[in-house]
Amino acid sequence: MPRANQRPRLVDVAEHAAVSLATASRALAGREGVSAEVADRIRQIAAELGYVANPYARTLAGGASSTVGLIVHQVDDPYFAEIAAGVIQLAAEQGLLVQICQSGRDPGYELQQLRHLIAQRVGIVLIGGSGYDDPRMEAAARAELAAFQNHGGRAAAIGRHALGIDAVLPDNEAGGHALAQHLMDLGHRRIAVAAGSAGLTTVADRLAGVSSALRQRGRSSADLAVVHSDFTRGGGRAAAEQILNEHPDTTAIIALNDAMAMGVLSTLRTRRVPVPARMSVVGFDDVSVAADLAPSLTTIRLPMTEMGRTALTLALKPRSTRIRRRPTGHLLVVRDSTGPAPAT
Amino acid sequence: MPRANQRPRLVDVAEHAAVSLATASRALAGREGVSAEVADRIRQIAAELGYVANPYARTLAGGASSTVGLIVHQVDDPYFAEIAAGVIQLAAEQGLLVQICQSGRDPGYELQQLRHLIAQRVGIVLIGGSGYDDPRMEAAARAELAAFQNHGGRAAAIGRHALGIDAVLPDNEAGGHALAQHLMDLGHRRIAVAAGSAGLTTVADRLAGVSSALRQRGRSSADLAVVHSDFTRGGGRAAAEQILNEHPDTTAIIALNDAMAMGVLSTLRTRRVPVPARMSVVGFDDVSVAADLAPSLTTIRLPMTEMGRTALTLALKPRSTRIRRRPTGHLLVVRDSTGPAPAT
DNA sequence: AGCGCTTACGTAAGCGCTTACGTACCCTAG
DNA sequence: CTAGGGTACGTAAGCGCTTACGTAAGCGCT
Predict the structure, then answer these.
(1) Are both B150 and B180 inside the same structural domain?
(2) Residue nearest the C1' of D20 (CA based)
(3) Integer distance in angstroms from CA A25 to C1' C19?
(4) Within a domain: B198
(5) Do B185 and B292 belong to one domain?
(6) Residue B2: what pLDDT?
(7) Which residues of A touch B7 (CB under 8 A)?
(8) Neighbours of A116 (CB within 10 A)
(9) Are residues A296 and A277 in the same domain?
């Protein structure tokens, strides 16, 4: 008999169906050892009663945890927000719940969040971000994740390698390459890069692509003015200031993500530098506002939502011995923020 | 003895401290019945062992659940993203984990998510959004939340009343009033509103504020062209098209949120309507990109992150018999998207 | 008919914690 | 010197589920 005013338990279902607890559990978990008719009866009764297994009891008893932990830098950064949206979508389809954490771009705090998540016994950890500057932090995270996986945990990274886990990785290098090529095609010779903090793998990879494009055209990457700041709008503003001051002959700025590009545009507007007539600007990621900026932003489109989904898919699959790296597509989207280099 | 390669359990702590399970539990929960010295010893040993209570076992045994469920329309909508950021921040400070769900602006799906969350035994439910069009859906959600609270659950709403739970509410009406007033001060007489879908309380409230401002100046709100669409950029574009076609003498558009305002600006740019020279545009919310648009957007600033924190605070507090409504501040932020009405 | 094997189900032992209740001890009052 | 009461701690009974193991029935086979 279900207790008055309480959620039904498995015993309630079992009693109604006149079977044992074990049989009811097996039937609802869809595992073998139950005849089809009995299993159907049990499922139907469960549905009638509105039975939903208590996840705490289930997990305690050794069943799989049905929650996935997601760590991102900041949920109100559009890049991470779109990734999170993808993860949450797919999780909902699978009946999983997503526990979300923000690292605030602080590797120490991120490690702490990771430990917290694991201590909370989530079944799956997804970790976004861009790697650590500090190799010791990185090693600690690797170790934590390795131990987690050894105990049956699943993990995947988004846009970050070097964590020793499966990862979905955009081709940052090819993206950087495409951007530099696009600008050179437009005749730009003095190109500056507004980069996120050095040490991030994302920064290194995108930058490598830019350099290789320059070299390909027989130009030294020493020509390239690279200014490091951080992957935010504020960082973009600061980088733009520095570029305008220290490299006044620059005609094109490659911001290594869209947030920085927005900051760059904002500074150029303030300084009354017309875009793209006097200065071309490109970004990276194609967050959804990029198309609505003025001027609309030329950038590399990354399928962020899809990346989130893919990461979860990767983590859900049985783990192979080799680390899997799932590349994602990317696409140069040319809009109004780039134009021919101004005549000198 | 801690099992090799396994997280320490409470028994491990108890054995090390040479006390019983019950004493260890009491000491770590900080409840009375343990002498100060013993409690200190236990806590220290727990720390040394890196003991973290298994939340599944804790919750099963009747301890409080330490997870809060958050339902928003879409995490990659900046408005909700900022709210979520606030919730997640405060939750982290309190050692709570946030389970996040997206309703996709679909009341039916939202209800389903709510049920799922409750079935998953989260301790606290926070629900953002803007109410339901369908009164039956709304009643269902009310009932679900009431039952949840009767079983000891905590709940709070963000920007939505009529759910029968504590809520943090911006003064939507005053905000709408301020926007309309600002435009009238600039001499605008033909004002159109790009509204989210009718039936949302947020829409109704903001609209009421606009109307009351008009009436206050002795103008009929029948003069006001109100176009309903939805609270997205696409919705804003559609609404702007409709306004330009059906009300060509409009000189100012009030978008009832920033997302719509961005859509409006995008359409005006496409149609080559100069802003603010030919048309003034205002938004509502002041999402962080609003300042970086071109032109930067005049809007009402809402403290979204703070609202998220406040909602959690509200839910954390012991429930009073009366429903509490916590208002939030708001502020008219005048930027470059508004200017004097063009001379006729 | 009797043997073993498979299939379908039941029994019961936990998972790691909280907490009601029980017990030993010490202190004070009569 | 003992009754009564408080404090500090231990014992053990669950919370609701999963699953290893046990058992009975049915099958084909010699």
Answers:
(1) no
(2) A22
(3) 28
(4) yes
(5) yes
(6) 56
(7) 119
(8) 18
(9) yes
* pTM score of the predicted model: 0.92
Residues 6+ apart with CB under 8 A from A324: A166, A167, A314
Buried b (16+ CB within 10 A) or exposed e, A7-16: bbbbebbbbb
Do the chains contact at B60 and A55, CB–CB below 8 Å? no
CA A242 vs CA A238, B70, B142: distances in Å: 6, 41, 55
Residue A312 sits in the same domain as residue A205? no
The pLDDT score that the predictor gives to residue B343 is 86
- Å between A59 CA and nearest CA of chain B: 7
**Residue A198's pLDDT is what?**
86
State the first-to-last Cα distance of chain B, in angstroms, to the nearest integer: 87
**Contact between B99 and A57 using a beta-carbon 8 Å cutoff:** no
Whether CB of B218 is under 7 Å from strand D: the answer is no
Closest nucleotide (CA of B63 to C1')?
Answer: C18
Q: Please state, rounded to an integer, the average pLDDT across all residues of chain B.
A: 92
Assigned domain for A219 exists:
yes
Which single residue is written with the structure tokens 């969350």? B117
CB neighbour list of residue A260: distance below 8 Å, 6 or more residues apart? A194, A196, A229, A231, A232, A233, A235, A236, A239, A283
B333: in domain: no
> Phi and psi at residue A331, in whole multiples of 5°?
-150, 130
Rounded CA gap, B328 and B38, in Å? 46
For residue A35, say whether its CB is under 7 Å from any atom of strand D: no
Given pLDDT bands bounded at 50, 70 and 90, which one contains residue B130?
confident
Tell me, in Å, how far CA of A56 is from C1' of D13? 19
- The confidence band for B3, taking pLDDT boundaries of 50, 70 and 90, is low
- Among all residues of chain B, which has the CA nearest to that of A73? B85
Residue B165 and residue B311 in one domain: yes
Q: Which of A48, A32, A85, A92 is nearest to A67 (CA)?
A: A92
Q: Given phi > 0 = left and psi -120 to 50 = alpha, else beta, which region is B77?
A: beta
Whether A181 is covered by a domain: the verdict is yes
Tokens of A212: 């290789």
Q: What is the pLDDT of residue B151?
A: 83
Same-domain check for residues B214 and B285: yes
Other residues' Cβ atoms within 10 Å of the Cβ of residue B272: 7
**Extended beta strands in chain B, E state:** 67-72, 97-102, 124-127, 154-158, 166-170, 191-195, 225-228, 252-255, 280-282, 299-301, 325-328, 331-333
Say how many domains are in chain A: 3
Residue in chain A nearest B263 by alpha carbon: A292
Å separating the CA of residue A141 from the C1' of nucleotide D14: 38
Optimal mutation site among A56, A106, A124, A151, interface B, most CBs of chain B within 10 A: A56
Domain co-membership, A189 together with A292 = yes
Domain span including residue B28: 10-53
Please indicate, yes or no, whether residues A46 and A83 belong to a single structural domain of this protein.
no
The residue to which tokens 């830019």 are assigned: A210
Contact A295 B292 (CB under 8 A): no
A115: domain CATH number is 3.40.50.2300
